[in-house]
Amino acid sequence: MGTKMWAGRFTKETDERVNDFNSSISFDARMYRQDIEGSIAHATMLGECGIIEKSESEKIIEGLKGILADIGSGKLRFDPTAEDIHMFNEAELTARIGDAGKRLHTARSRNDQVALDLRMYLRDEIPVIKAQVRELIETLMRLAEKNLTTVMPGYTHLQRAQPITFAHHLMAYVQMLLRDLGRLSDTYKRTNIMPLGSGALASTTYPINRQRVCDLLGFDEITQNSLDGVSDRDFAIELASALSVLMMHLSRFSEEIVLWCSWEFKFIELDDAYATGSSIMPQKKNPDVTELIRGKTGRVYGDLTTLLTMMKGLSLAYNKDMQEDKEAIFDAIDTAKLCLTTFIPMIDTMKVIPENMRSAAAKGFINATDCADYLVKKGLPFRDAYKITGTLVHTCIEKGLTLETLPIEEYKALCETFDEDVYEAISLETCVMQRKAAGGPAPESVKAQIEYSKKALEQF
Fold first, then answer.
1. Active site residue ranges
2. What is the pLDDT of residues 105-156, one digit of tens each?
3. Which residue(s) pair with 268 in the sheet?
4. CATH superfamily name and code, 361-457
5. What is 16-106's CATH topology?
């Protein structure tokens, strides 16, 4: 290993075990492009401000571009013994261009450098995740448009409750995912703030131009306090939080897919490409993708907890604890992207089985509320109508009937207000079609939800 950049203060070599413990290049190497781009902007500013010679600035920039190209092509490989990606790039630069490379670190610290790199990396990743969420939303809306009249039971407590449509159910997840896009967009705003120039904690005595670096790198603004600039990781925590909520939504949906593709429900069938079999039971078709998403959700929660716990006891400003931020947030990003990558085509290719949804909706007295509403519309107080309908359900259970098959005489024996038109009022199709209130399951209402969601998607 070469001489460390901070070696002047020390008279002994660092113990190799400490080197290994201290090293972060195994995971922060993925920020090589952001580190180099940040250094190019910094070197440009140093030359423009006369802090280093313009010729040296140009030499540094040329050298950095060469390193970037060589890493990208695979010609240059990372040195696993390097302390971190920042030291690797600077050492490689100095090896290539000589003493001019040693001037790159003028007026900056690794503290503000790593804060810059992480912000740049996360702002590159957030749009990628947003694009995946958009694709999932668009997939769900297309599926909803095909199932506007596909009647299914809606549930509370996992008990059949009221009739809805499959489109209505899908659009509930669209609303969740739109909120996820909103959270990711808000996180991006607070990530896209430029910390370079904060120095180690107290900025610098050099006449730097922070706004120039901000403009060169495409940030919205600069951080306003140097202590906060190097020690803030709110943006990483906020992204992990947004990803945790996103994963929670994917996990809830996954749980329903697991239920729906079981023989007990059989509302959908997964494409063979997105299911697995059993090593011993030849009849099995397992929804492993959805089960893994449920499991990986806990992993992302753990990443969020890691970041929160890491930061909760840190005094200002930078502390080495904060090196732990990258593995956690990188894992959260990688996990969310991987789950979306498999979940989207799984949803797009699954087969919907409308007849099974309709059959399930016909059972369980999920039109009982509509029966009570029928009486209310004819003048009875709701509580009286509720009690009468409950008694009718009890009668049906005793006689092995449903509200649709219960003879009108049984209805009239309990309440003379009933007439033959009750059967039309409690038909599943009527129950769904009459729920036209904004946000309801009637096809026209769901169409409106889809149009609203399409317009909302344009904001992102």
1. 157, 278
2. 999 999 999 999 999 999 999 999 999 999 999 999 999 999 999 999 999 9
3. 352
4. Fumarase/aspartase (C-terminal domain) (1.10.40.30)
5. Fumarase C; Chain B, domain 1 (1.10.275)
